[in-house]
C-alpha cells in the first residue's frame, strides 16, 4: 500500500477529482493548505499590490493498493498539469498497515469492500 499526497492548484481541484473518479479512486481526503514557494512577485489587482509568496493550494491524500499507484499518479498529473511554475508536487509514501475499524480487517483489503472487488 502507498499513500499518495498531491499538492495542487486550488483551481485544478475539480478536474483532479473527476480524473480520480474516472481512475476508480472513489475515496480521498483533501485539505486547503498554504505554502511558501521560491517565486516572489507582487501582483497588482485594482491598484493594490498583493504578495504572492504565500500560495494557496489543495492537498489531496489517498491510500491505494500498490497496483493502483501508477494510474492514480498519472490521473493527477494529467488533470493538474498546466506547464507553468506552481503546478504542485506528488509524494508517494509507503504505508505499513491499514485497519478497518468496523470489522478489524487488516491490510489492503481494509481499503475497499471485498464484494466490490473487480
UniProtKB/TrEMBL annotation:
PANTHER family on file: NITROGEN REGULATORY PROTEIN P-II, NITROGEN REGULATORY PROTEIN P-II HOMOLOG
Family: Belongs to the P(II) protein family.
Gene3D superfamilies: 3.30.70.120
PROSITE patterns: PII_GLNB_CTER (PS00638), PII_GLNB_DOM (PS51343)
Name used for this protein in its record: P-II family nitrogen regulator
Pfam families from the UniProt entry: P-II
Amino acid at each position: 500500500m502507498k499513500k499518495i499526497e498531491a499538492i495542487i492548484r486550488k483551481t485544478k481541484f475539480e478536474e483532479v477529482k473527476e480524473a480520480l473518479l474516472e481512475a476508480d479512486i472513489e475515496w480521498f481526503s483533501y485539505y486547503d493548505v498554504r505554502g511558501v514557494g521560491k517565486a516572489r512577485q507582487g501582483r497588482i489587482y485594482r491598484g493594490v499590490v498583493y504578495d504572492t509568496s504565500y500560495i494557496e493550494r489543495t492537498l489531496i491524500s489517498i491510500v491505494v493498493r500498490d497496483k493502483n499507484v501508477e494510474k492514480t499518479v498519472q490521473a493527477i498529473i494529467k488533470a493538474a498539469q498546466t506547464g507553468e511554475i506552481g503546478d504542485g508536487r506528488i509524494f508517494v509514501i509507503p504505508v505499513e498497515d491499514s485497519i478497518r475499524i468496523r470489522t478489524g480487517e487488516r491490510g489492503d483489503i481494509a481499503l475497499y469492500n471485498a464484494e466490490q472487488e473487480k
